[in-house]
Design goal:
Blueprint lengths: L6 E4 L8 H15 L6 E5 L2 H4 L7 E4 L4 E5 L5 H19 L13 H4 L1 H28 L14 H16 L16 H19 L2 H6 L15 H11 L1
Helix pairs in contact: 1-3, 1-5, 3-5
């Protein structure tokens, strides 16, 4: 793993599975933004800050050229997004855009027009930089968590396929799920069609008398009309 940042991890975050993501995003951001020297990256824990609904997430120090990110209770993806934001401020600092002598206190993004522009750029470029990096990484290293983004498949079908594959593997056999799809021209379909044609032919061969004989009477007055032909012939013969 090629390291891009000097990372001071003073937080409770385990970097064993995610450190390469920080370095990868840093390299990508440098190519996009053009800053010359990577800032120092400080990861810190602050339980008091984490307990606040609107606590701090990250900040950039122009003098020390360092980025500090608060990690407690945050998803890795959210932490990386904060990093991309602060790297825009680092680029601004290298370009002399943060040498502003105006107001730097609380609410500076509303009260200082120049710093407001800096924040607007950081939100726009930082978020888009992160999005471009994330999408590129997923296309280079696809996983089951993002394959539906690149295949024409509904969420329901995708989940069903994953579930079926997991169940069949668990019970020790494999299934070709594609073979279960209905297809025209199968033996089963042909047998069904032949049975239907035979049934229709038998119905067509029936005489009017046979149809009348198996049709229930409409009322009591014409019950005799619906008796079998042989029975009616015998009744008529006796009547004569």
């Amino acid at each position: 793993m090629k390291k891009f940042f000097t990372i001071n991890n003073k937080s409770e975050m385990d970097l064993s599975q995610s450190e390469e993501l920080f370095h990868g995003l840093g390299q990508f951001a440098q190519e996009k933004m053009g800053f010359r020297k990577p800032p120092t990256l400080n990861l810190t824990s602050d339980n008091k800050n984490a307990s606040k609904a609107l606590g701090r997430t990250a900040h950039y120090d122009p003098q020390g050229m360092s980025v500090t990110i608060y990690t407690d209770g945050r998803h890795t993806k959210d932490i990386l997004r904060s990093l991309a934001h602060e790297l825009v401020h680092h680029t601004q600092n290298e370009n002399g855009m943060l040498n502003d002598s105006g107001y730097h206190g609380q609410g500076y993004a509303q009260k200082n027009k120049d710093l407001r522009k800096s924040e607007e750029e950081a939100y726009l470029k930082g978020n888009m930089c992160f999005r471009d990096w994330e999408d590129g990484l997923k296309q280079d290293k696809p996983t089951i968590y993002n394959e539906r983004r690149y295949k024409i498949m509904s969420t329901k079908n995708w989940k069903n396929n994953e579930l079926m594959e997991n169940l069949t593997e668990k019970f020790g056999f494999k299934m070709d799920l594609g073979a279960l799809n209905e297809a025209e021209g199968t033996d089963a379909d042909k047998e069904t069609d032949e049975d239907s044609e035979k049934e229709n032919a038998e119905k067509e061969s029936e005489s009017d008398e046979d149809v009348k004989a198996r049709t229930p009477p409409l009322d009591k007055a014409n019950k005799a009309d619906f008796l079998p032909k042989k029975v009616r012939d015998q009744i008529n013969k006796k009547a004569k």
